[in-house]
Specification:
Layout (H helix, E strand, L loop, with lengths): L7 E2 L14 E4 L6 H14 E3 L2 E2 L1 E7 L6 H7 L6 E2 L1 E3 H6 L3 E3 L6 E6 L4 H8 L6 E2 L7
Parallel strand pairs: 1-3
Antiparallel strand pairs: 2-5, 2-7, 3-4, 5-9, 6-10, 8-9
Amino acid sequence: MSTGRELRPIESHLRAESPPDDLLLIVRAGPLTVEKLVEHMRREQERYSYRGRPMASISVDATVAGWTLQAILRDRLWSRTSYATTTLSSVREAGYELLPTFDAPHFDVVVPTATADAASTLLSLFGPAERNPYRRRR
């Protein structure tokens, strides 16, 4: 699934931090479906490489460095109706790598392949979708 464009190495966008295992992660995009996750994974692997290979991943935000769940929902996910959470330890125990990318509180969860099976497994780590009480219309 190559677009003919050169992939940008994600390494130049990594922050130097090692998040703790009890870190809370927030899925950025709703609806929280396998199809949407696969779409996001494929889009990212067409843009970025990690360790010299296409990087299938999903974006999440995390409660780091002053970013509370409320601040993330209000200031970053204000256009999203729903969100779901998990801990970093759950993600790591399932064998996924979490990369601190771009500006905090953004992270990428790297998956081996952009498939429905990978998306389903990753989605199963998250709790049920919850309504974002800070949602605003654009």
